Please model this.
Amino acid sequence: MEITNLLCQALQQKSQDILDAMHLVSSTKRLIKQLRDTGWDKLFAKVCSFCEARNIDVPNMNAHYVTRRVRARQQQENYTIEQYYRVDIFYTAIDSQLQELNNRFSEQTIELIILSTALEPREGNESFRIDDICKLVNTFYPHDFVDHEKLQLKTRLQQYEYNVVQHSEFRNLLTLSSLCQWLVRTRRSTIYPLVHRIIVFVFTLPVSTATTERSFSAMRIVKTRLRNKMEYDFLTNSLIMYIEREIAEKLSIDSTVDDFRDLK
Model:
């Protein structure tokens, strides 16, 4: 029970950290695009001011830019120094950063993670957003719901908000996993099967490949040549304890012994 609670708390904290990171990535991408569109003039003015204060000559930005390659010079006779610094250096550097961010954090991934928080109970009633949940289903899970379920979804969510979100016990839930368990325990998962299905989809969402990558690395350490006959359950438990060793260090040995004793 103790390791389960710690894992739930860690998953909740990771979910919040990932959501904050997604908002940070989105705002960073917008600011970088804004810098690309309107930042050249301000940057050039600062460079000129820096050069003037230190008696550094500023080249004539309207002059022709001359390259060392004759063929390139012939093809770009009207290419100015200002165009070289603005296009070949300023724009290229910013486009490289944007491309890297887009490769690692696509708009679709960011939208999926942000919409997935619409069902989490950590912020009480304010976190429940019906329109975002409908958009989540129609955009990312269109084949997991038939047409009549999509038509009924908004009505079912409104009923869920009135009968579940407003419930006093709901306000004590802190994580999506605890919400899922509470719905099953109170049999509300059978009353609102569409909502429960969405929660399961969101709860099993692989928000990161870091754990998977760490699993393959840990496999070589845990399952050595002398341990090549480990059974699946024992190997799985050993990998969990090794991968989540930061959580395992918080466990009490005495409580673990007591839990093992209670199993018998």
Notes: The two ends are 16 Å apart (CA to CA). The chain has a mean pLDDT of 79. The chain has 14 helices and no strands. Residues 109-203 form one domain.
